[in-house]
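[audit] Reproducing an earlier prediction to check determinism. Same input, same settings, fresh worker. If the C-alpha cells differ from the archived copy the diff job will pick it up downstream; this log only records the rerun itself.
[audit] input (287 residues):
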Amino acid sequence: MLAEEPWLDLGIQTWSAAPVAGLIIQTDGEDRYWAWTTPTVAELGGGSGQIRDWSLRLELDPSVSAVQCLQMAVHDELGRVSPYRKLCLARRKHGGPVANAGADLTVYEGEAVQLTGDLRLIGQSLQTVRWRMKDAPNKVRLHNPASVSPSFTAPRVDAPTTLTLEMMVQDMAGGRATDTLRVTVLDTHQSARPVVDAGMDLTVQSGRQSVALTGRVTDLDSAVSVYWMVDDPSVQLQDHQRLRTLFDAPRVDVPTLLTFMLVAADGHHQQRDTVLVRVEPPAARHH
C-alpha cells in the first residue's frame, strides 16, 4: 500500500457543559452546529498515516436533542481519505441507551460486509440489540442480527445501490434507541480504473545518487496500492511501494536507457505507466 493509510477512531462520547452555537458542517444529511478547534480535519493528515495527538471541541446548538451523531474522516498529504467514522454525542443527563450503527460504507457487489456498531447504557442493563434492513429486506440476509456486529454479503447490482440498515438497542427499563447507516453497493464491472502517471522522461549523469521519480495515481472509488519496477536488475529502488522512489544511477561508459514502470492496483483493475531515464556517461577529458 502507499505507506500506512490514514485512519480515525471515534465512538460514543458524553458531555455535560451547556452547548453553544458553532460552525455548520454537513452531518448525516442534516445541518447541525459544530465548532472545530485546531488542527482542522484538513491538517490532521501525517506522513505516517496515524493520528495520535490532536484535539477536537464540539459545540452544539442549545436546541439540539440529547443525542447527536456526525461522521468524520481524515486525509494525509497524498490525498488519501480514511474510512468515515461516526461520533455520537450524548448528554450525561440523558437516561436512555445510545446506539451508534457506525459510519456509512461503500462496498462492491459480492463483498463480505462486517458492520461494527457501538452502544452506551446509562444506569441500566442491556436487554436487546437488533439490526434490520429497512429497504430490500428480502434481497439481503443479515447474519447475527441480534449482535452488535452483524454481517452480510453485498447483493449483485447493475448500478450503484444504497441499502439502509437500522440498529435498535433496548435496555431493561424499556428505554430504546435507534441509529441507521447507509451502505452503497457498486457494480464491479463499472468501477473506475486507476489513472497512472509515471512522470516525465529525464536524463541523468552516470553514477548520480538519489535520483527521484515521482508518480501520480488517482482512483475515483477505491483505495490503491502501487509499486515501481525497473528493467535493469542491478538498479536498486528505495521505497518502491510509494509514489516517490529513489535510485542511484549506474556507472556507464555509453549512453544507457532505463525503463521504469509504475503499477497501480485497486483490487479490481491494474494500470501501469512507464518513464524513461537516460544515463549519460562521463564527459570525455581532453589532454
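[audit] rerun output stored. Observation attached for the diff report: The chain has no helices and 21 strands.
[audit] end
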